[in-house]
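Changelog note: in this version the structure field was regenerated for every chain. One regenerated record is shown below for reference.
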Amino acid sequence: MQKNQIQKYYYGFQFFRDFCFFGGVLIPFFTQWAGISMFQVQFLQSWFMFWNFILEVPTGVVADYFGRKKSVMLGLIFFGIGILIYGIIPSFYMFLLCEFILALGVSLMSGADKALFFDSLKEIGEEKESKKLFGKAHSWKLIALLVSAPIGSLIGSKVGLNIPMLLSSIPIFIAFLFISRFKEPKQYEREDEGKRYFQIFTQGIKFVKNNDFIRRLSLNGILINSAGYFIIWLYQPMLSKLDIPIIYFGYFHALLVLVQVIVSSNFGFFEKKFGFNNYLKFSSIMVLGFFLLVVLMPNIFTAILLIIFAGGFGLTHLEFVYAHLNENIPSNMRATILSTVGLFSSLFLFVVNPIVGFLADRSVILAFGIISLLPMVSLAFKTRKQS
């Protein structure tokens, strides 16, 4: 395969896999069409995280022993099936099955897609370009999210809230066609998945525990990222309380994606202007400040400010932290430590998701108020960059 073919197929896969019409009507789909509570919605997210964690090892074996291409294709099939069932049967218990199927699909694709792309580049001697090309691929993913959300909210408001979910299976099928055009490359690295995860739990945890800077920086990233994560799940219930029509929800979702692109593209500028330690504080204060603003004055203007500033800085904060963790971790342990931080982040959300859902059923503003404790706690921890 030539470089331009590899890029075209992988970018096409990234774009159509994330071309999800349901993003702009996600909460109305659950609460209005399916009639389930916010507690149940957030329980489903924890259920997904649980199975995604459990399935990571066995699905990694599939990728390593049967090929990355086959693993990604199989993952897309399960992902598409999960979405289709989701849009047909409005039942919490059926949704539990769907989340298991989706977790199976995601875990089959997790890592295998990037390995397929990298190994394909390595086979033609272009692996040095991988960092730049991965960045372009991520841009295509963000473009897909920007475009699909407004279309989905329009369809959902005019035709039915489950229709965007059903239609999202079409781009998944197109993504399948793109990935099927790949030629399975030589697998340059083959490792035992069970051993890899054992190393994550032992070496990774030990390293984080014994390194004060890494521990504090990781905790900072997890807390702020978690606060940003809940904006995704709570801004739509807040808009509903403010009587904003569903047809506009997709534009708010697109705005949330756009501000992440702007902030993450300017990490260098922010760090140069504020310095590393002050940027961490600034980002935390922005999240905290606009959470509290919405709690004190819930209206459409403060909702937009929350999405722009708390969403923009909160949802990109962990990526900034990862970049600096990379600089302070030995190269032979980098993947293990970053995986450890990711696992702790998922574990934290696994526990907190149902609690936030329970609070949101009583009051969305109350939920925002409680979540504001996360950036508050992060500000209590001093994080000094090692020289």
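Spot check on this record: The two ends are 44 Å apart (CA to CA). The chain is about 80% helix and 0% strand.
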